[in-house]
Specification:
With 296 residues, the protein is an alpha/beta fold. It contains 10 helices and 14 strands. The structure holds zinc ion. InterPro entries: Metallo-B-lactamas, NDM-1-like, RibonucZ/Hydroxyglut_hydro.
């Protein structure tokens, strides 16, 4: 893996640009990393960066459990003795890697789902974070940013830099993905309203570059969620199975899927169906052993 670099944002707050951009904060003697990259090689590259800057790693503060964010935790914890924090409700996913593909597939996952994209190395969690508020003893503020994953959090440093995980996406990433992974559409919309009003000097999303004004990212992410829900509702005018709706959605987006993309997209579609059912816009109908989704 290529050498990582630190980009200064203000005070003791930095971003480490990459495929998944990570955050770093704190004095050299007690550094906090926000997320740890996708695998052991990310962990090794982060360790080299910490050593080259004379930093001692105290904590890895994870925004959420997805493997591309926590894959480096196990290596870094063993190599540096640091502690690991994650939202309490997502703790089991980091301690038992099989849960992520099992959660997406709904049963013991077949072999194409058992790889580093869905399974980070298991890592013991030292602290489960619950709710928003000050993280005592660190100076960091924890903010609940649920939606993309059930318990996702962001971290705001005393320098007013907000590390927001996967709560914000730019238009380029949205177009590349076609369908963003989402666990709870309604929660994500609440999170976007919250971020629109959050006072911070910098907003650092993991899949986009840091911005001082999050408005365009908030708007792009919100528009995507609402556009997809709208399209799902349209597809439900003809009562259809979940797989048929997904096929219609992929055709509309012009995207193909491998098994990993399929379970991620099926999960995202399920979140949109839940959103529409709870709003009274779609209903599930049993029909000869199939569950059809129909617009109301
Ligand atoms: Zn994610």
């Amino acid at each position: 893996m290529a050498a990582l670099e630190l980009r200064h944002l203000g005070g003791d707050s930095y971003v480490i640009p990459g495929v998944v951009s990570l955050g770093l904060w704190g004095p050299v003697g007690g550094t906090v990393l926000f997320d740890a990259g996708g695998d052991e090689s990310s962990g090794r590259a982060l360790r080299r960066l910490l050593e080259s800057t004379g930093r001692k790693l105290s904590w890895i503060a994870c925004t959420h459990f997805h493997a591309d964010h926590v894959g480096g935790c196990s290596y870094l914890k063993k190599a540096t003795g640091c502690a690991v924090a994650i939202p309490e409700m997502e703790r089991p996913f980091l301690e038992e890697p099989l849960y992520e593909p099992a959660f997406l597939w709904g049963a013991s996952p077949f072999s194409a789902l058992r790889n580093k994209f869905l399974m980070a190395p298991a890592c013991k969690v030292d602290l489960g974070l619950s709710g928003s508020g000050l993280w005592e003893g660190t100076g960091l503020k924890v903010v609940h940013l649920g939606g993309h994953s059930p318990g996702m959090v962001g971290y705001v440093t005393p320098d007013q830099v907000a590390y927001v995980g996967d709560a914000l996406f730019g238009q380029d990433m949205i177009e590349r993905h076609g369908l963003l992974f989402v666990a709870d559409v309604a929660d994500w919309l609440v999170t976007l309203d919250y971020l629109e009003n959050l006072e911070a000097r910098w907003f650092v999303p993991c899949h986009s570059t840091p911005v001082e004004d999050p408005t365009s990212l908030v708007q792009a992410t919100r528009r995507h969620l609402l556009d997809i829900s709208d399209r799902v509702k349209t597809l439900c005018r003809t009562p259809s199975t979940r797989d048929d709706i997904l096929g219609g959605l992929m055709e509309w987006l012009g995207k193909r899927m491998d098994p990993i993309r399929y379970v991620l997209n099926l999960g995202a579609l399920s979140a949109h169906l839940t959103y529409l059912v709870e709003r009274g816009e779609v209903e599930p109908l049993e029909d000869r052993g199939r569950l059809l989704w129909s617009s109301l």
